[in-house]
Amino acid sequence: MNPCDRYTIAMIPIGSHPAWHPVMETLAYASGFAVFRWLRGRQGDVVDEPQRWTVLAAATVGALIGSRLLGIAEQWPTVIEAWRSGRLLELLLSPGGKTIVGGLLGGWLGVAAVKKLCGIRRRTGDLFVLPLCVGIAVGRVGCLLAGLADDTYGKPTTLPWAVNLGDGVGRHPVQVYEILFLTLVGIVVSRRAKLPEGTRFRIFLGSYLSWRIVIDFWKPQPLIGGMNLIQWSCLAGILLLVLDVIRLRPGASHDSQYSERRVYDR
Amino acid sequence: MTDKRFPFPKLVVVMAVGLLVGAGLCGLDFALAAHGIGKSTQEFGVGPLDGLSLAVMVFSAAGLGLSLAAWLLAAIFRGMRSEDKSDGQQ
């Protein structure tokens, strides 16, 4: 008897179907927004409502562009093939192909650009941390239930908690790992410690990007120089974040660093 | 930059989320499959949801483009008006 067979028997079967992905993705946006509204009502905000909606619009459009661009670029062998066969437009218009990392980085850069344009100087990201944790976690349930149709499944494993996504192969439940990680980050970041404005968002972004660099080694993706494109993007994002933290370290001139002013809109 | 008379940012958020959801619903499979293009339709089949998602994608993409353009124009127009006002006061 093959020593792996006992784990094959113990595999957790996931009744996967690609339709689960859009259902859970929609639920992810809805739950993220519900948490955001609840949190804003409870904690107040550092900017008033029109400014918050401007920031939210910049984040959403930036996330849309970033997630789509990186999602398509991530499948670079397909892009090259489509380019060669003259079907690049078809690929660009095709469904799916979105990434959370692209969405986070695109949203972050979009907000930074619009804040500069509008003269908003407060750090607005802290209020997005818990909604992002909840939204991504809910979305990852959809990734798990979508099974092999979604490109986020894990590599084969013989561990007792391996999941069977329909092909009879035991795989790392990387989506479940990520949900657990986000739960931990959510708990840590929600603690009532007094932190400078914007710190919670930077902790979240830095830890999530670092996490993705690690966990993506457990996903079968095309590699460039030993890492996939998402991991390289995470590395670029971390470098940007470090530069941002150095620029805004305590003591650096920034009028809103420790400001207590909050706006409460009901 | 924010318009107090018309909620452009809210409209942009709704349209962008609509497009994100629509893209996730695999709507273009329906159109591509009609022309014999696309592998995902062979894998999962084309369902009634695809027509709906295609409509969501098309309308939200058009709505997003229009609302962004209108927001930008409104901001430019308001900027010009405030410049005129300050010139008049001087």
TL;DR?
Chain A has helices spanning 5-10, 20-43, 49-74, 76-84, 88-93, 100-118, 126-146, 174-189, 199-215, 229-247; strands spanning 12-13, 163-164, 170-171. With 266 residues, chain A is mainly α. In chain A, helix 7 runs parallel beside helix 9 (199-215) and helix 9 (199-215) runs antiparallel to helix 10 (229-247).
Any idea how many domains of chain B? 1
Q: What summary fits the major beta sheet of chain A?
A: 3 strands, mixed
SS strand fraction of chain B:
under 5%
Enumerate the strands of the largest sheet of chain A in spatial order, edge to edge or round the barrel: 1-2-3
Mean pLDDT across the residues of chain A is 86
End-to-end Cα distance of chain A? 65 Å
Please state the overall shape of chain A, judged from the principal axes of the Cα atoms: globular
Determine the N-to-C terminus distance of chain B. 23 Å
Number of DSSP E strands of chain A:
3
Structural class of chain A: mainly alpha
Measured by residues with Cβ under 8 Å of the partner chain's Cβ, the largest interface is: A-B, 29 and 33 residues
Spell the H/E element sequence of chain B: HHHH
Indicate the low-confidence ranges of chain B by residue numbers: none
User: What is the count of distinct domains of chain A?
Assistant: 1
Q: What's the β-strand tally of chain B?
A: 0
* H-E string of chain A: HEHHHHHHEEHHH
